[in-house]
Amino acid sequence: MRQILLTIDRLIESISNIPKVYKMSDETETLEVSPSNGKPVKPLDDHTSAKSDDGEDAFSNSKPKNEEHASVVAAHYNHLEEKGLKERFNSPIFYLRNFNNWVKSVLIQDYTDKIREKDYGKPLRVLDICCGKGGDLSKWQKARVERVVFADIAQVSVQQCETRYEDLRRRCGHLFSAEFIAADCTKDTLRDKYADPSINFDIVSCQFGLHYSFESLSQARRMLTNISECLKPDGYFFGTIPDAYEIVSRAQKSENFSFGNRIYNIKLLFDPKDGYPLFGAKYDFHLEGVVDCPEFLFNFDLFVKLAAQYGLELVYKARFSDFYKDHSEKYKQLLNRIICFESYPAPPGKELIGEASEYEHAQIIWDQMEKKNERDCLGTMSMCEWEVATVYMAFAFKKQKHIWDSKGKPSYITSADKNQTTRDSSS
């Protein structure tokens, strides 16, 4: 069978019922700067915090609420059933999950390659923060890393991650060494829990979990500390998150600030008329068989500013649609091997994963194709799955080198500083 990949560009253009939200309106820009009381935000550093008029932290929920939400998240992921390959193949989000795995695989391969460009035989140490059940175990094995520390809030998930690791080690014979930590990465100090607290990581990965830290400023800072304090200079922190601007844009175009389709639903749990809180902006997220718990809008621009205080400089960000454009040519074989796209029309004896109406974009292109035979098909994704895929974005930060200032605090050397030094020396 000859499968012709339907490019994501054509897919985006042809899905008419998805709002054109790839350029944010002026209204959604308020997410960048407006706290819940609508007043401007002062710059945040290690010695100041944003306070409301009554002196309380304007961005943080109370401690009991924080603890309650953490328990809800942990309980949800602890109770997710371990599903076999056969059941996953029959899942209504089969191709979406594969596409997400492709994105993660590309991130891992790209940034391990960047580190090895300077030292090919370098043994790599990794922190997989918010690791879940260990969905990236085989990816780290293929990346030939030396050691991985897995950490997650859900104890049952961490136990399942360790079981998967032992199974993989029995099958492979040789595998990276690992340790497993059950902890709330937004509240606990991970370094105190490492077998070797002096460990330095070359890579930190956080896949589909960083947004939980935006419940409060203190939790975002704790997460950043856990990410950065053991990350080597020139090491990378990368991951994937729901795109808050995309969520807000779709919510603004919907009734009751709720939107979705047969496989997912998102509903804002606060009144946008009062503004978009920088922290604690909760929404309900249901994704068939994967997620069914409250999450928090992740203000990425604010995170970039906070991350800079911890020596992390943004080097890449892209929505999944753009990520595909950036990497699909180089990693085309991986797209096929992971089975990221569904064959259209369905092969003889098989059915499409979605309803026929979800493939109108593919049908139009199929009808326009010339010189096709019964063995040809398109590689595509149902509109329902693609709507979910385009909620997400990928990112990468690089840990900067630092010098110590007169107060004994690290002063990080950014790319802008290096460029200025180069210009000064050449003038």
Structural category is: alpha/beta
Question: What fraction of the residues are assigned to beta strands by DSSP?
Answer: 15-25%
Report the uncertain regions. 14-63
Identify the overall geometry.
Answer: globular
CATH architecture: 3-Layer(aba) Sandwich
Tell me the number of helical segments per DSSP (H or I, 4 or more residues long): 15
What is CATH's topology name? Rossmann fold
**Cα gyration radius (Å):** 22 Å
Mean pLDDT: 82
| Total strands | 16
How far the N terminus sits from the C terminus, by CA atoms, comes to: 61 Å
Helix content: 25-40%
CATH class wording: Alpha Beta
Keywords: Methyltransferase, mRNA capping, mRNA processing, Nucleus, RNA-binding, S-adenosyl-L-methionine, Transferase
Domain MRNA cap 0 methyltransferase: 91-400
Pfam family, one: mRNA_G-N7_MeTrfase
Catalytic activity: a 5'-end (5'-triphosphoguanosine)-ribonucleoside in mRNA + S-adenosyl-L-methionine = a 5'-end (N(7)-methyl 5'-triphosphoguanosine)-ribonucleoside in mRNA + S-adenosyl-L-homocysteine
